[in-house]
Recover the amino acids of this structure.
């Protein structure tokens, strides 16, 4: 690795960071999940999204604290290394790889399914290849180009969602008035158990806000930019999800649909006509491409940090392109894994994701508490509310979300962890040694109170 660059270029500002996080989350996902959330909540989708926003904000605050304390691109992998133990760090990173590796596959697969549905003359496998090649090209060139692509596509998607919202409001006033608007938040069929169950499903829409933490080495003033970016991403996503689900629920009261999975498309056709629904679906797919770019970028950066530390083979995973300063081998690996979507159903691919994500979220909350314990032992006095009570609440919510996963997802997640434990045993010689790590002089790992 002598002469090889070991750090990425920091030139992203706060706006770019937040837009990256929103692109990763894909705000238009609310239209595709609306039917399921509305049905589960018995016609109170915006309330379920509001509860999910509060729940995810707890973990978002913990991510923000850790991003300020440890400004490195490794996300939960690096946080657990610093706050708990290098072996816990490896397992945290390994768990998140389950999420990060398969999320690009799901993103590209969804794109291909919907594009093929609207343009059936092009085979689904070809749409998959087109999306993967285009996103890979953007990410090889670097985040500066990805940033411009994300901004352009997000503007188009935001404009489309705003038009949909206006049409829903007009339809709501014409068919039910303000009384129906109140029923969108709570109605005679709604119950707290239904809302919490729907919120557990709605929380999946927030997966990806944590990806902002993988950009620490590419952000200007990361100790300030990344924490703010994480919290603003959660809040902005929550506002979009709550507002759009509210007007859609207003336009279509209740939780009964001919097809829950395509309810968002049906609502678009209801309020704007078939032509509008088709155009909106196309623009949503463009926004989905921005999500694909962001997901592939963050996955490649987590793999780079683990490779740089040599817990994954450094000659492959820990390399940056000499001029572009992007982890090109990892970008290509993610693209190759995504091609496996040709042989997987959407249900199979998504079953891998949530276990790793919520386990990682739990560990981030635990890392904040571990940091507080270290500070108390050294004589400092971090806030019990911010460093113990809120992280505990966040961890409890994340554990609850894990319990809501099906047995297939849990079983696959445990199998993935078992493979990680075997690999960890090999590289630590039976857990007797810490995992290897590349310490960078410019990386401040001091754990002072913030």
């Amino acid at each position: 690795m002598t002469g090889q660059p070991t750090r990425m270029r920091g030139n992203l500002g706060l706006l770019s960071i937040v837009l990256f996080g929103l692109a990763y989350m894909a705000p238009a996902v609310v239209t595709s999940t609306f039917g399921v959330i509305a049905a589960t909540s018995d016609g109170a989708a915006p309330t379920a999204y509001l509860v999910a926003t509060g729940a995810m904000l707890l973990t978002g605050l913990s991510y923000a604290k850790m991003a300020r304390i440890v400004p490195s691109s490794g996300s939960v992998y690096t946080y657990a290394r610093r706050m708990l133990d290098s072996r816990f760090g490896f397992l945290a990173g390994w768990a998140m790889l389950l999420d990060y590796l398969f999320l690009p596959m799901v993103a590209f697969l969804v794109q291909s399914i919907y594009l093929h549905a609207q343009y059936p003359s092009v085979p689904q496998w070809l749409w998959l290849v087109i999306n993967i090649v285009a996103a890979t090209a953007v990410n090889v060139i670097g985040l500066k180009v990805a940033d411009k692509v994300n901004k352009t596509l997000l503007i188009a998607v935001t404009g489309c969602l705003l038009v949909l919202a206006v049409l829903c409001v007009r339809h709501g006033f014409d068919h039910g008035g303000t009384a129906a608007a109140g029923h969108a938040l709570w109605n005679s069929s709604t119950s707290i158990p239904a809302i919490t169950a729907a919120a557990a499903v709605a929380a999946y829409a927030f997966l990806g806000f944590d990806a902002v933490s993988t950009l620490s080495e590419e952000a200007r003033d990361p100790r300030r930019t990344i924490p703010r970016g994480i919290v603003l991403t959660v809040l902005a996503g929550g506002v979009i999800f709550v507002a759009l689900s509210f007007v859609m629920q207003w336009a279509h009261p209740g939780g009964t649909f001919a097809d829950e999975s395509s309810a968002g498309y049906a609502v678009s056709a209801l309020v704007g006509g078939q032509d509008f629904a088709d155009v909106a679906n196309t623009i949503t797919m463009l926004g989905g491409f921005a999500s694909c770019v962001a997901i592939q970028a963050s996955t490649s950066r987590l793999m780079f940090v683990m490779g740089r530390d040599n817990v994954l083979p450094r000659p492959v995973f820990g390399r940056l392109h000499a001029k572009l300063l992007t982890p090109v081998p990892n970008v290509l690996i993610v693209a190759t894994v995504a091609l496996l979507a040709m042989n997987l159903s959407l249900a199979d691919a998504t079953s891998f994701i949530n276990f790793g994500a919520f386990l990682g979220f739990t560990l981030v909350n635990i890392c904040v508490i571990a940091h507080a314990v270290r500070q108390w032992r050294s004589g400092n006095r971090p806030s019990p509310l911010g460093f113990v009570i809120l992280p505990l609440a966040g961890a409890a919510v994340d554990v609850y979300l894990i319990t809501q996963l099906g047995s297939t997802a849990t079983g696959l997640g445990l199998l993935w962890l078992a493979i990680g434990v075997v690999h960890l045993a090999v590289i630590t010689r039976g857990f007797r040694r810490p995992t290897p790590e590349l310490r960078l002089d410019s990386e401040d790992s001091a754990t002072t109170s913030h």
